[in-house]
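Q: Given only this backbone (166 positions), what sequence would you predict?
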């Protein structure tokens, strides 16, 4: 659906998330159990979803906003997605804090990992994945921006009716 480097940037952001969360959880003395692995899987899905939302906005803005650099489009896309990201992550953080405070001993490692992962995942979606795509676009001399804009032309041509008019 996107240019290939969007996927590469999302995977790099996921590896970043997983590495940082496991490191912080280890420092917080969280033992790796099946529940913690489940929490890590949930976080990867949550993080990649945030990243995809921002990348989708970049793709849309590339087709609709003209006269802007790719960096400006990435910045605009992050700003447009920021309120949704903050509300979603904030709601999850409130629920996880309740689990951490009121939950039993079996839920505490799960809640700790989700708490760490929500913060790290939200950060990486905005400040790791999107800048990577921007830097890649710079490296390839705006080829990413041109490819995204060219897809609009192909869709418009593909949407034209075929056959006789009624």
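A: Predicted residues:
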């Amino acid at each position: 659906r996107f240019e290939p480097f969007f996927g590469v940037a999302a995977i790099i952001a996921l590896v970043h998330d997983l590495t940082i969360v496991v490191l912080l959880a280890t420092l917080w003395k969280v033992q790796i159990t099946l529940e913690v692995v489940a929490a890590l899987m949930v976080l990867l899905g949550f993080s990649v979803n945030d990243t995809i939302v921002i990348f989708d906005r970049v793709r849309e803005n590339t087709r609709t906003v003209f006269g802007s650099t790719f960096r400006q489009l990435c910045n605009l896309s992050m700003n447009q997605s920021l309120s949704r990201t903050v509300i979603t992550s904030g709601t999850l953080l409130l629920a996880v804090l309740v689990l951490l405070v009121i939950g039993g001993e079996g839920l505490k490692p799960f809640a700790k990992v989700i708490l760490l992962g929500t913060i790290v995942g939200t950060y990486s979606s905005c400040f790791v994945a999107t800048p990577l795509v921007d830097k890649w676009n710079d490296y390839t001399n705006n080829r990413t921006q041109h490819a995204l804009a060219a897809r609009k032309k192909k869709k418009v041509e593909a949407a034209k009716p075929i056959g006789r008019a009624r």
